[in-house]
Specification:
This protein has 15 helices and 5 strands. By secondary structure, the chain is α+β, with helices and mostly antiparallel strands. A 5-stranded mixed sheet has the order 1-2-3-5-4, with helices on both faces. The model has no long low-confidence stretch (mean pLDDT 93). It has 3 domains: 142 residues, Serine Threonine Protein Phosphatase 5, Tetratricopeptide repeat, CATH 1.25.40; 78 residues; 115 residues, no CATH class. Strand 1, helix 13 and strand 2 form a beta-alpha-beta unit. The radius of gyration is 33 Å and the shape is elongated.
């Protein structure tokens, strides 16, 4: 059994011998002498003073092995360090062990494990242990892979949804639907709640009862906070103005109507009949469905596909398409269309619409 006096004697002997070798850059010698002292403990890491010595020896061996870039050896010693019960040796669990593991895995190229252990180390130490090896590269690595505050919020929102529905595939589907609704900028939270209920009732009828949960409004509020546009809707205003100009030129121009082209064309036809009954000359229609908008979000294409059509033989569909393209280009948009009536018009837009209560 090692008592305090023996502990101090061994500590001084080892430190002085090892330090002398390190000053001569005899790293192998320093490792050998430290290994000899470690072996004398006979694997007794549980007793207070033998555990303290073992911790110091292993800590030193890990540091030296990093200097000479023997990371396989360092990993072996990291695993030995994990065996020490820190409470038994009156040492706070400040993340040093996890830091050494993370740094060693980083050098070995296992970045997933490096991230895992370095995150634990940072959390335990408040970041204080991140430069134990005399370099900030591990902090920089962690900064590059650490989830941002926004990503943490996103995960929190998804986790809340997951707890409510307890079905991974369904949760992912609903998560995407809510994100799309928020990003569209067309819906209040009350309207999103109605849309969500309709979506679940149509696609997951057996889970419809879950939507009575009082948690849903708070979940939608969290999604709204995370995914809604925070900037001024400059691009959407340009699109809105272009559609207004088309309306003045005899078009039915509609935003986010229906989920299918058939629904969109039917709505445009109804409006066109009303306006013609009032004596207006109608040319054609231009619209995008809500599904087209959602598809743009999911494909990350920034290309919104517009449907269009003519109401009379003259102008025909190609002439109507040309009018739409001209109006969009004048508004400052890049437009992609091959003048084929079977091809939709793609307007290139970074979507920035946001819901305003006044609307």
């Amino acid at each position: 059994m090692i008592d305090f006096d023996i502990y101090k004697k061994i500590d001084n002997e080892w430190y002085n011998t090892k330090q002398s070798l390190l000053e001569k850059k005899d790293y192998i010698g320093a490792i050998k002498i430290t290994e000899q002292y470690l072996e004398k403990l006979n694997g007794d890491y549980e007793s207070k003073y033998s555990g303290k010595l073992a911790y110091m020896f292993l800590d030193s061996l890990i540091n030296i092995s990093h200097v000479i870039k023997d990371y396989d050896y360092a990993l072996e010693k990291c695993h030995d360090l994990q065996k020490i019960n820190l409470a038994e040796i009156n040492r706070p669990d400040d993340g040093d062990t996890e830091f050494y593991l993370g740094a060693t895995y980083y050098e070995l190229g296992d970045l997933d494990k490096a991230k895992e252990y370095l995150l634990i180390a940072k959390k335990k130490s408040g970041g204080r242990c991140m430069e134990l090896l005399g370099t900030n590269k591990y902090s920089l690595f962690l900064k590059s892979v650490e989830p941002s505050k926004e990503q943490i919020k996103m995960q929190k929102a998804f986790d809340k949804l997951s707890k409510l529905f307890k079905d991974e595939e369904m949760t992912e589907d609903i998560d995407l639907f809510i994100k799309n609704m928020v990003k569209s900028g067309f819906f209040s939270e009350e309207e999103m709640l109605v849309g969500l209920r309709n979506f679940v009732e149509y696609n997951y009828e057996d889970y419809f009862s879950k939507l009575k949960s009082k948690q849903l409004p708070s979940i939608l509020s969290l999604y709204n906070e995370i995914y809604s546009n925070k900037k001024e809707p400059v691009n959407f205003r340009k699109l809105y103005a272009a559609f207004n100009q088309l309306t003045q030129n005899g078009f039915v121009a509609k935003h986010a109507i229906g989920n299918t082209d058939d629904e969109g064309f039917e709505e445009c036809k109804d409006e066109a009949i009303e306006r013609m009954d009032k004596g207006e000359d109608m040319v054609g229609c231009c619209f995008y469905t809500l599904q087209a908008l959602f598809d743009m979000f999911e494909n990350e294409s920034n290309q919104l596909l517009l449907s269009y059509g003519n109401f009379h033989d003259t102008p025909d569909a190609v002439e109507v398409g040309n009018c739409i393209c001209t109006q969009l280009k004048e508004a400052g948009f890049e437009v992609i269309w091959n003048k084929d009536v079977n091809t939709k018009i793609a307007v290139c837009i970074e979507w920035d619409n946001k819901y305003l209560e006044s609307e």
